[in-house]
Design a protein that fits this description.
With about 500 residues, this protein is of the alpha/beta class. The protein folds into 3 domains: about 5-80 and about 220-300 and about 440-490, FAD/NAD(P)-binding domain (3-Layer(bba) Sandwich), CATH 3.50.50.60; about 105-210, Orthogonal Bundle (Guanine Nucleotide Dissociation Inhibitor, domain 1), CATH 1.10.405; about 300-425, Guanine Nucleotide Dissociation Inhibitor, domain 2 (2-Layer Sandwich), CATH 3.30.519. About 35% of the residues lie in helices and about 20% in strands. It is built from 15 helices and 19 strands. It has helices spanning about 10-25, 60-70, 105-115, 120-135, 155-160, 165-175, 180-185, 205-210, 220-235, 275-280, 295-300, 330-340, 385-400, 415-425, 470-490; strands spanning about 5-10, 25-30, 45, 50, 80-85, 90-95, 95-100, 215, 240, 245-250, 255-260, 265, 270-275, 305-310, 320-325, 350, 365-375, 410-415, 455-460. Strands 7-6-15-16-17-14-18 form a 7-stranded mixed β-sheet. The chain has a 5-stranded parallel β-sheet with strand order 9-2-1-13-19, with helices on one face. Strands 10-11-12 form a 3-stranded antiparallel β-sheet, with no helix packed on it. Helix 1 (about 10-25) runs parallel beside helix 15 and helix 6 (about 165-175) packs antiparallel against helix 7 (about 180-185). The longest helix is centred in the last third of the chain and has 20 residues, at about 470-490. The protein is globular. The chain binds flavin-adenine dinucleotide. Flavin-adenine dinucleotide binds near residues 14, 425 and 431.
């Protein structure tokens, strides 16, 4: 008889794992507490507008291709992908912005225009970033983080220095122009840490940005969730929504024997949690948890966010599909996130207007806007604070882009720390899991497999390889690989 796997959660990592496990012959059931699947990548629909609640940047298309090709499929079997041009623009002051277009040649020209001689330096920087991409994304991130030796290869030995310098140091050494340096430091924000705390090796994110480009799935990122749902179901995965897991059962032999969903027992052979790691362990009796509260407390978490989903009754000017607002000092905002957590005085923010390129996201002649302010996890979240910050960024937006938008708002909805906790059981309301700092990389991250309970596994942005949609797809593959291998070898390991 096929072994039964119960998976907690239906985010990218859980969906990914479910496909691999079903393909390997397991009987897989996903239990999702919310009424819709997708986790942080759910969708909000209102009055003819649709918004991706979480991820909006489709980077590293090769990782998505590799995922679907493992099932003899292609992304285009499920959704249409458009390469955005421009990829994004970055505002530094009123009417003053740099646009990043869709090819390296155009980006070199934009750099050169900003600072003579910078394109040559950029070429060198990107060549190294590409090399790191080939090592990291094509190989290293597909290793399960079981042992430090996984990272030791003839190629990585040559790059060891890049684990002990930082992106910030490398960028600032070469690029004296602050605006260009900020653009080069932006991609690692996806990894959840400051560039001054992110090893140089992670410059592969710069290659993902400039070298590979920014894509948009027609009708939004949620289409990728729907694609994975369709694939999972075609492989036999059963998905149950409105199913909150309240407990992971463990027997006297320290073996996971099932879960309790909405008060009902479900027995199974293997439990895999794709919910936030900290929360997943609270579903166990304290003696079965691997990581203490103080372990989590000491970790560097990626930021939380204050988000607004806004319907405008007109098309907006002077912005692109993705627009970043770096008109205030990044270091000061970063301190308020990482060093002395508090609401930032002058926050950087990001805005996305998917309806600029995608008619499906707003009614004709209208604009769908998503605004995101990165925040420290765990700080106070009140309606009054949300409103205060909405006013702050809308005023700045109006000044910087020379237009008034306040009176064109049809509706706005917000999402912040309390929602991350309520909707996803997120530790301190973090948005992107745990940061990829040097000491939170690979085998130093929380493990895919429990060290205390047999047949209990974890996947998602808090374990390997880290935060982001592509890493979550990979995390699902890695954990499914471990489960399959141990099952094939009849291993009953903890
Ligand atoms: C605002 C925001 C913007 C982002 N932008 C980008 C981007 O542009 N590009 C990018 O690549 N990445 C981005 N990310 C990161 C990316 O979205 C995440 O890394 C990824 O979606 C995490 O997937 P996951 O499977 O680890 O977890 P999740 O998506 O969090 O899934 C966990 C699931 O577990 C469920 N769950 C929790 N507790 C229980 C329980 N007790 N019982 C049952 N179910 C439970 C939750 O409801 C949830 O559905 C963004 C994230 C956020 C929040």
């Amino acid at each position: 008889m096929n072994k039964k796997v119960s998976i907690i959660g239906s985010g990218f990592s859980a969906l990914s794992a479910s496909c691999y496990l079903a393909k390997a012959g397991f009987e897989v059931t996903i239990f999702e507490k919310n009424s819709t699947i997708g986790g942080r990548a759910r969708q909000l629909k209102r009055d003819g507008f649709s918004f991706d609640i979480g991820p909006t940047w489709y980077w590293m298309p090769d990782v998505f291709e590799r995922f679907f090709s493992d099932f003899n499929k292609k992304p285009s079997d499920y959704y249409a992908l458009e390469k955005l041009n421009p990829a994004y623009s970055v505002y530094f002051a009123k009417d003053d912005y740099i646009t990043i277009e869709d090819s390296l040649e155009k980006i070199y020209a934009a750099f050169e225009k900003e600072e003579v001689g910078s394109s040559k330096k950029l070429k060198k920087f990107i060549a190294n970033a590409q090399d790191n991409y080939d090592v990291a994304i094509k190989d290293l991130v597909y290793r399960p983080g079981v042992s430090p030796l996984e990272l030791v290869t003839p190629v990585t030995i040559k790059k060891v220095g890049q684990f002990f310098s930082t992106i910030k140091k490398d960028v600032r050494k070469e690029f004296k122009n602050d605006r260009l340096a900020q653009i080069l430091e932006f991609p690692v924000l996806f990894l959840g840490a400051k560039s001054s705390n992110t090893p140089s090796f992670y410059s592969f994110m710069n290659y993902a940005d400039f070298g590979l480009g920014t894509f948009h799935p027609k009708k939004g990122m949620y289409q990728v969730i729907l694609a994975m749902e369709a694939l999972a179901k075609s492989l036999g995965v059963v998905i149950k929504t409105n199913s909150t897991i309240e407990k992971i059962n463990v027997d006297a032999n320290k073996r996971a024997t099932g879960i309790v969903a909405n008060g009902k027992q479900h027995s199974c052979d293997i439990v895999l949690s794709g919910a936030d790691y900290h929360h997943s362990e609270t579903l166990l009796d304290a003696k079965h948890r691997q990581y203490s509260e103080s372990y989590w407390f000491k970790k560097t978490f990626a930021p939380s966010s204050l988000l607004f989903y806004v319907g405008f009754d007109k098309k907006l000017k002077n912005v692109n599909h993705h627009t970043l607002f770096f008109d205030v000092d990044f270091e000061t905002h970063a301190k308020d996130i990482y060093d002395t957590p508090k609401w930032p005085e002058a926050p950087l923010f990001y805005a996305s207007f998917p309806s600029i390129t995608d008619n499906d996201s707003a009614p004709e002649g209208k604009e769908a806007g998503i605004f995101l302010i990165p925040l420290a996890p765990g700080i106070e979240d009140t309606e009054a604070l949300r409103l205060q910050y909405f006013e702050k960024i809308i005023s700045r937006f109006e000044t910087l882009t020379s237009q008034s938008i306040r009176n064109s708002i049809i509706f706005k909805e917000s999402f912040c720390i309390n929602d991350f906790i309520k909707d996803y059981n997120s530790y301190k309301g973090n948005a992107y899991g745990m940061a990829n700092t040097l000491f939170q990389t690979a085998f130093l991250r929380p493990k895919l497999k429990s060290g205390k309970v047999k047949n209990l596994y974890f996947t998602g942005q808090l374990t390997v390889p880290g935060p982001g949609v592509p890493p979550s797809l990979i995390s699902g593959k890695l954990v499914a690989g471990l489960i399959t291998k141990q099952n094939n070898n009849n291993e009953d390991l903890i």
